[in-house]
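Narrative of activities, Objective 1.

The group set out to show that a structural description can be obtained from nothing but a protein's sequence at a throughput compatible with the screening campaign. Below is one input-output pair from the validation batch, recorded exactly as produced.
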Amino acid sequence: MAASPLKNAGVNPYLNIWQTSSTPHEDFYVYSSGSATFTTSPSGSAALITGSDWLRLTSNGANNNAVGIATNQPAFYFQAGRGEYGESYVHLVNQATNTANLAHGFCSTTSLGITDGAISLSATSALLLKLDGEDYFRAYSSNGSTNTSTLSTTLGPDGYYALRVDIFNFDATNASVSFSVNGYPLKDSTGLSIIHKVAYASALNMYGLVQTQAGSANAQNFDVDYATFAKNRLVSF
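Output recorded for this entry:
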């Protein structure tokens, strides 16, 4: 396991999607799609890799087929004075050249509407994406039909990645969302860190999720070492 210095810091209580019952498991030593905490969706399969504590997500062999794990309850939301974060450590291998889609973060639906490398959501979300046909990671946030999508300058080839989304209180009406890969913030074409503003008004509760989606007729594998989602349930001053 590649440990993260961030995953046990700063926010309590935790909602860890590898947790079953009241006993937390470090990584995916135990996985059950019927867990009270996480579920496999929308289709495909999830299984522990033999001899390891990694979970392998495998999409069905059809273009745009998605598979992911998500918290069973949408326990996360944009709210003044409260923050939340989600982090996962993953291994990405494109089954065909630069075709894999991946998503990590928060969304009010687990069906992300990614089709042929384009995302179309009418939902509340804060997502770190890598889309079919793109070489770079993308920051995405939305509230209803209003969305912001920013292509970063951080390359996303085959490899191992610590993916993180942080939601902070910005002001009385908006949250700010930041995105990082391997501890470094995503930056835009001007070299500035990407920060999105999302209005609290009409925002829906969100699931924590990690998802992959095939960008070709080949089944897409996506390995997850750990995934954790947490929020501060106390109002900060």
